[in-house]
Amino acid sequence: MEMNTLLIGAVLGLIVGFIGNKLIERHKFSKQIEDSNEESKRILEIAKREAESLKKNKIIQAK
């Protein structure tokens, strides 16, 4: 009887550990995706500002 209890406890521990690990990984990857999206938006905003500045300079130079 003791061996069965120990075996059941070990199996349940492995299952809970596996599920917990998957939940942690999912959260970690979603956070990385969110951070990447924010970084890409920031880079695009900087590029737009630089392009607008270059455009204004070229218009001024053309005059």
TrEMBL record:
Q: Where are the transmembrane segments?
A: 6-24
Coiled-coil residues are: 30-57
Tell me yes or no: is Transmembrane helix among this UniProt entry's keywords: yes
The protein's matches in InterPro entries, at most eight in alphabetical order, are given as:
RNase_Y_N
Keywords (alphabetical) are:
Coiled coil, Membrane, Transmembrane, Transmembrane helix
Q: Which residues form the Ribonuclease Y N-terminal domain?
A: 7-63
> Which Pfam families does this chain map to?
RNase_Y_N (PF12072)
Q: Does the keyword Membrane apply?
A: yes
Q: What is this protein called?
A: Ribonuclease Y N-terminal domain-containing protein
